[in-house]
Amino acid sequence: MFQKITFIVLIFISVSGFTQEQVLELSLEEAISIGLENNLDVKSSELRESTSELEFKQTRNSRLPNLNANYNYGLNNGRSIDPFTNSYIDEELNFSNAGLNLGLNLFNGFELRNRIQRDRFNMEASEMEVQQARQEMVLNVTLAYFQVLNNTDLLELAKTRRIATLDQLERLETLNEEGEGNPANYTDIRGQLANDDASITDALNNLKASKLELRRLLNIEADLVVVAGQFDMEPSDYEFSADEVFNESLENLATFKAGELRIEAAKENVQVSRSLYAPEISLFAQLNTNYSSLARLFNETGASIVETGEFVNVGDNSYSVMEEQTNFMEEQIPYQDQLINNLNSNIGVSLSIPIFNGFRAKNTVALRKIELEEQKVAYQRTKNEFEQAIREAYSDMKTALNRYSIYKEQVSAYSESFRVNEIRFNSGVSNIVEYIISKNNLDNARINLSNARYEYVFRTKILDYYRGLSI
């Protein structure tokens, strides 16, 4: 009875760490859906995709003309030029200038066209990289999910082992209290129970660690309970060879499509750099006006007869010379009128021919070619790495399948052996050592069988991922 109570307390303490938090029950499909929504790697790839899309739109919009307006208003003291009369003055004035500038690139060696094509390839590559991040996330969540299932099964096996040991312990405890049987058998079985308790503790810890990994991938805080679902967990021959898996990966995986698009973008970037050798033709137009607080308008108000300051002698008399003078009234020109009256415009075509730029064009083209070769090397490296990973996964899958067949036969053999030894031990024909050895052999074989089964599932899921299939 003491051992039963101890076992219940042990399980309660171990499980209480899981039940203190909110528990979320998930199927594999639900886990994948949450991962697609919350996974940080997927979100980062989506942000990079948005950046590439905006860069492409910005480059494409470069085909449009540039139209800019400028305006300023200020106060000037001291000697300066009156913007209205263009004469030197030495007094305070308020001034203002306004303008409108238009610029349009007509030809630049097809640089803009190649830049648009380059950024389109980069945008499409970013889209493929988002798909790649999603595929990798689905694979990682699936593997973590099955790892939780595996550790759950191993925990159940450990509990089952303890129950069998506990039943035997109770039987031997009764015999020991009645003075029958070998006392060493009772102490040995107690030692075996301690081993079973340690196995449960290790299984609980492994289950908790696998759940933490799944929570990290899903980016959630709640504790998890996974639902086994309807999975075909019985290993069988995989219908595709390693070469077939690799060939399908080249056609279906987003990572290869992204690499091919990056190469195309690098090719376009070489063409962009070649435009440095070409002349540039552009159209420009300007509209300007100005204002000055010293600008005045003089309106004619009539005429009057005034003395000129000169005299005419007629005989002995001197007469003042008179003349007719037009009279004006000074009036400040309004701000809006000055802006309208002072409008001026110009339009023209600009031609820029590169003659010598310190070999900048030559070196830039050479650098872009090196970047192109780097993209090709990176693509080939990716192919080599995937081919090696596929062949290793395929080999591991075949090994797991062979091990499963071996352990399946071993479990069958050890089950029968344990059945016989348990009967013999209960009958007093065999000793405790034979019983424990037989029991441990069966328990270890069951653990190995479970591990081999999930190892096979892991490898087939990885191969399905390489084939570009939805897991």
**Number of distinct beta strands:** 10
Strand content: 15-25%
**Which bin fits the share of residues in helices?**
55-70%
Weakly predicted, low-confidence segments: 1-20
The separation of the N and C termini measures 48 Å
Please outline the major beta sheet: 4 strands, antiparallel
Helix count equals 10
What is the chain-wise order of helices and strands?
HEHHEEEEHHEHHEEEHEHH
Cα-based radius of gyration, to the nearest Å: 45 Å
Strand order of the largest sheet: 2-5-7-10
Q: Helices and strands: which structural class?
A: alpha+beta
* Mean of all residue-level pLDDT scores: 88
* General form: elongated
Structural account:
The chain is α+β, with helices and mostly antiparallel strands and 471 residues long. It has a domain at 298-332. Helix content is 63%, strand content 21%. The chain is built from ten helices and ten strands. It has helices at 2-19, 28-38, 40-61, 111-177, 183-218, 242-252, 254-274, 335-341, 360-426, 432-466; strands spanning 23-26, 66-76, 79-81, 88-90, 93-107, 223-226, 280-292, 296-314, 317-332, 344-352. A four-stranded antiparallel beta sheet has the order 2-5-7-10, with helices on one face. Strands 1-6 form a two-stranded parallel ribbon. A two-stranded antiparallel ribbon has the order 3-4. α4 (111-177) runs antiparallel to α7 (254-274). 25% of the residues are buried. Residues 1-20 have low confidence and may be disordered.
